[in-house]
Design brief:
The chain is α+β, with helices and mostly antiparallel strands. It has 3 helices and 14 strands. It starts with a helix and ends with a strand.
Length: 231
Amino acid sequence: MEMSILLMSLCMRLVNDGIYCALAIANDYKMKKILSLFFAFIALTSTAQEISMTKATADDYIKILNNQGLYVYALDLSNMEKDKYLMAPVIQVYINGKLKEDILSDFGIAYTNSASRITIGFYSKCDSLLTFKFQFDEVCGLSFSLPKYPIRDESDGTESIMYKPTPFVIQPTWKEHEVIPVVAYSSFWYDPEDKICRNCDERVFGANYLNSNTFKHSPHIYVFGIKIWKM
């Protein structure tokens, strides 16, 4: 009888030990799997957050230059018969929406279309002065400076100089000796309704630009463009 009880006790112990071992193995397997998934996640997230140096693009430079007040606009003349046309730079001055002056009209300056493109660029060395340049080819160009004027904030009496460039849509057809506007450089204006200085309008001016908010409200605008005629 005692022998039977001893054998039964030994069997129960073996069974219990086997279950414990099986559970231990199962738990060890789960732990290894959890750890493997954890380290895999760490590896993926560390790779995803990796930072490396890359080369700056032309757009990166343009954004920085624009923020510093430098803008350049180009016209494609490649479809025109070379050396058969004369081109004159144009700078018009609008005061309170009305054309008051054509700065270069009395100079009689003109260049042949010897290059396939021309550029018009400008920048501000200081708040009150705008420096611009017409470049007609690798050699010929025209450059000088123009004054900028402050706008008064009627809400607090302060004055500041703020301008914004807006390009024009270049029309597919044009007439000789007529102004082809390329870009407008306009002052902000005071909005009495919202009590702020603003310059809000289309990103590009169309043919009906004289009816735009800018030409209705801006107190001072420069329009840069060209005239073309056959030699």
